[in-house]
């Protein structure tokens, strides 16, 4: 009886650190063309979206999707780094000249270390797949995870993005 209570308490404590809403997606053709577009950075961490986009692109590649990334613009001032609108506008203009079927984008809600003795990482991400032409949304998933004391924010971000992408159904060649 005591063992069961301990197991239940441990399970509840660990599950409180993560939350995922990952529906199954429609099946996407293996040969479809994808583009990674700018993510919104709703976190307090500058450049969090850019970091997540790079992880997303690598994770897509691991799943067999060779997505193209929007071209980054060189910014040297803090105002440009913090302002998403110019980056998104430039990426939309670039997308109009691309021959892609699907766009994957999203937002970063959290990307930081919690304050305190251990400073655990906390990551919250939403991903969305849209038609590049009609802008219809085909799939949306969200997840949050608090890592352990010695884990990095990027490592936690990898886990969240990988878990979210597990909901994508990609037709095998």
Key descriptive features of the protein:
two-stranded parallel ribbon, single chain, 28% strand, 173 residues, alpha/beta, 7-stranded mixed β-sheet
Structure summary:
It is built from five helices and nine strands; from the N terminus they run αββββαβααβββαβ. It is of the alpha/beta class and 173 residues long.
Question: How is this fold's topology laid out?
Answer:
Elements: H1 2-15, E1 18-21, E2 27-28, E3 34-36, E4 40-41, H2 48-62, E5 68-69, H3 78-82, H4 84-96, E6 102-113, E7 121-131, E8 137-146, H5 153-165, E9 169-170
Parallel strand pairs: 2-9, 3-5, 3-6, 4-6
Antiparallel strand pairs: 1-8, 6-7, 7-8
Helix pairs in contact: 2-5
What does this structure look like?
It comes from Photobacterium proteolyticum. Keywords: Signal. This is Penicillin-binding protein activator LpoB. With about 170 residues, the protein is an alpha/beta fold. The chain has a single domain, classed as Rossmann fold (3-Layer(aba) Sandwich), CATH 3.40.50.10610. The chain has five helices and nine strands; from the N terminus they run H-E-E-E-E-H-E-H-H-E-E-E-H-E. It has helices at about 1-15, 50-60, 80, 85-95, 155-165; strands at about 20, 25-30, 35, 40, 70, 100-115, 120-130, 135-145, 170. Strands 1, 3, 4, 5, 6, 7 and 8 form a seven-stranded mixed β-sheet that branches. Helix 2 crosses helix 5 (about 155-165). It is globular, with a radius of gyration of 18 Å. It starts with a helix and ends with a strand.
């Amino acid at each position: 009886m005591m063992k069961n209570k301990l197991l239940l308490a441990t399970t509840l404590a660990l599950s409180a650190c993560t939350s995922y809403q990952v529906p199954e997606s429609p099946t996407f053709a293996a040969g479809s063309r994808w583009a990674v577009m700018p993510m919104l950075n709703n976190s307090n961490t500058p450049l969090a979206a850019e970091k997540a986009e790079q992880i997303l692109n690598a994770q897509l590649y691991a799943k067999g999707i060779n997505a193209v990334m929007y071209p980054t613009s060189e910014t040297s001032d803090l105002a440009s780094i913090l302002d998403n609108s110019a980056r998104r506008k430039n990426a939309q203009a670039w997308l109009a000249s691309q021959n892609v079927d699907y766009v994957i984008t999203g937002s970063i809600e959290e990307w930081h270390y919690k304050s305190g003795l251990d400073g655990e990482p906390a990551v919250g991400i939403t991903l969305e797949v849209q038609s590049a032409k009609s802008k219809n949304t085909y799939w949306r998933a969200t997840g949050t995870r608090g890592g352990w004391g010695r884990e990095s924010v990027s490592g936690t971000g990898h886990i969240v993005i990988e878990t979210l992408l597990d909901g994508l159904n990609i037709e095998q060649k």
